[in-house]
Amino acid sequence: MRQSRAIDVSTGLFVLLGMTAIVFLVTQITNREFSWRDDSYRLSARFENIGGLKAGAPVSMSGVTVGRVESIGYDMDVFKAVVTLRIDARYDQIPNDSDASIFTAGLLGGQYVGITPGNSEDVYRDGDTVEFVQDAIVLEKLISKYLFSQAGKDKATEAPGTQE
Amino acid sequence: MTGLLGEIAANTRSFLARLGALTRFLGQVLWQVPVTLLRPRLVVEQVYNTGALSLVIIMTCGLFVGMVLGLQGHDLLERFGSEEALGTGAALSLLKELGPVVTALLFAGRAGTALASELGLMRATDQLSAMEVMAVDPMRRVVVPRFLGGAIAMPLLTAIFIAVALFGVQLVGVQFLGIDQGSFWSQMRGAVELADVHEGLIKGVTFGIACSLIAVFEGYNAEPTAEGVGRATTRTVVISAVVTLVLDYILTALML
Q1: Which residues of A touch B201 (CB under 8 A)?
Q2: I need a surface site. Which of B105, B110, B111, B238 has the fewest CB within 10 A?
Q3: What pLDDT, on the 0 to 100 scale, is given for residue B101?
């Protein structure tokens, strides 16, 4: 009996340790944030192009994370991507003419949604739609635009693509 | 020439026979699982045997795997000037590959051999037949609790291994080599998704089931001689390692 009691204790400790490790992995090294009370509100925004934005990406104002991208869908009526933003309830004074843009963090970083505050007296409430949006900048588009404009400039002298 | 062909045919035949026997054995074990769960005491003992007793080796190896990953990762990333990505790289490689695979190999070496030799010795000393004579089903009383114990312990060991290894990476990367603590953790959190953790745990569960099954199968079907027990133990390690790596490829291909 004494022997089996000791085994129970060690087994219990082992299982507890394993569970702690799983909880650590889930909560501490992923971008998932667990809160017991869901005291946040949701905004939606329609973008022409969201680039590489993913659910769970941060929503920031002046670089401070105020929420997360909750889900991304596609609206077949207007042919745009619908991004649902979950904003922390602490930040409930965002003017309702603020705009949402998709930025890239660093050269190789992930994309995030940046909110720039507007001047309106009224504030966003749960379920509102952000009217002013700016799409993700797609690098290929920029490069091709630049290349074609360069090519247009000195078409006479050189063929496009051989620029240095 | 015909001799060679005949040998190949015989080998193929015995391989297929063994695979079939293993599948039948899996069916028998799974069939008995609900009954065994009515006596959790037996399973708890085996979780202790396979899990708690493997803890020291798992944690030691995890720490050193993490520290090596910290050194190598730092050396590699320094060439691109992005040492801060060490956290991301280490966390992803540990969660998705190194954690489950290394844990499974250690598990096969530490717990799998113990299971196989114990069962093989029971077979060799006629304990299993004695149980049958006493109308005790050795599958229910001996084999299935050991299988379940291993299958339960392995995912927990995997999680512990990964957590300790991350501590090792952090120790070398942040404390010794001076990567910024804040960017180390925030880059990791930004890049690691819940699905990556799921992938690691799914692999842990699968490898646990496979390694435990192979260990009890080899032990239970060992030849009842000293040599046979030794051979069963060796086969357990070899087959577990090969099956783990093959399953790893299949699971990775399925989940990417």
Answers
A1: 22
A2: B238
A3: 96
